[in-house]
Amino acid sequence: MKKRIISLVLAIALVFAMSACTGSKPQSDPQVTPGEAAEGGEITVGLYNDLDASLDPHMSSSSAATREILFNIFEGLVKPDSKGNLVPAIASSYTVNDTADVYTFKLREGVKFHDGREVTANDVVWSLSRAAGLLGGDTLVADVAHIASVESVDGDIVVTLSKPDTEFLAHATVAIIPEGHDPLSSVIGTGPYKFVSRVVQDNIVLEKNADYWGEPAHLDKVTLKIIEDPETLVMSLRSGALDMAVRLDASQIGTLDNMNILEGSSNIVQALYLNNAVKPFDDVRVRQALCYAIDKHMVIDLASDGHGTLLGSSMFPAFGKYFMPELTDYYEPSVEKAKELLAQAGYPNGFEFSIMVPASMQSHVDVAQVIVELLRPVGITAKIDQVEWATWYSDAYQGRKFEATVIGMDAHGVAASDLLARFVSTSPKNFINFNSPAYDAAYAAATSTTDDAEQTKYFKECETILTEEAANVYIQDGASFVAMAKDLGGFEFYPLYVLDLSKIYKTK
Questions:
Q1: In CA terms, which of 74, 144, 373, 443 is 20 to 30 Å from 165?
Q2: How far is Cα 156 from Cα 151, in angstroms, rounded to an integer?
Q3: Chain segment 130-140, per-residue pLDDT in tens
């Protein structure tokens, strides 16, 4: 770790001296096809973070690391495929009325829970009602808080919304669990893998669901091994103690000659997220100054070895029509402009602040280190506070007790609102405390219209406001590397934060 930081600092110094830089890109082959699938077998997969304390799928909607694993255990009425399409799952089909406030789902026959019980309409009504807070408790899944009622009509599920929502289907991925079941007592879903056991901070064991309604998993057993130290994770891959690991960064794959390396996108918005409610970041001029001071092209070259896609707002390319590449270079790097804005804001000599970063996420640590160096020329002194994931989640995300943090925000589904809803001033997910009446108005307009073109226009207005008001310093949708043993195949990248274990197989 120390050598990595020193090399980054030296590289930055060289860049400033030469006014140019070129990243070296590691070799990867996303087209590796190791052979024909063999059924059965087991593997061990490395994870850099443990899952949430609770595996209740309705309570884990904020943790991407947990959701990507629960994807294999739980299913909703629909689910995303690897191309980002929403396909029928527990529902076999669906219809939407003209005003986009009534969705009707026809249940698939023969779907069974992991305990052998067949899924019924009552299970679906209860699950959606629980998630939406219609059973007398709190709303557990914010994305479905606007469900007014859920009914079973002639065996179909009729969901009535309190307002039109053309994106609701993307949130009909909410997990269906048995009626009245307490997920804290046991983990029961309908997915291709069953939960077997868990040792906190050590491992999670899954086994194949032999009664799965769809295409079954290839492997009989998957052990997810928690290894939070990045160097130990790489050593475990090199030794063969791990068969696979995902979401590696460019610095971790250079010595993995015993593995096949695949490269895709992280599908995250990596940024220097700023707490807009604390000084000096409550001043838009300070936030804009940071945007001018931080050359994100340099960040990608130095911290990510040239891999990654530049971002200018809270949207990444997988979202197609919503992505605005024209915002990428809205702030052209300028030390002079940054100093001018700082002086206007009352900080002619700069200031000091802390960047909180989960220590287990090497790509974020490296980006933070480059940012520290890039801020020095404008008089800003930043220090990095590396913490455990659980601490980051409780203090920064939930408690909003931070000044700045480097992290990646993902989307829960394939709706633009999944990335943009968190910046509404009243959103419980608005951990940066962004407060813009213009943003709130644009978001409200986007989510109240049923006209696709008009909705897209307003969502893009939201993105533009985030950029203009410098809510954060947007960096990149980072490259994501997957290391797989050479006798494994079947991995598919998703445009979401998903690890689909059901497609992975050993070769014959």
A1: 74
A2: 8
A3: 999 999 889 99
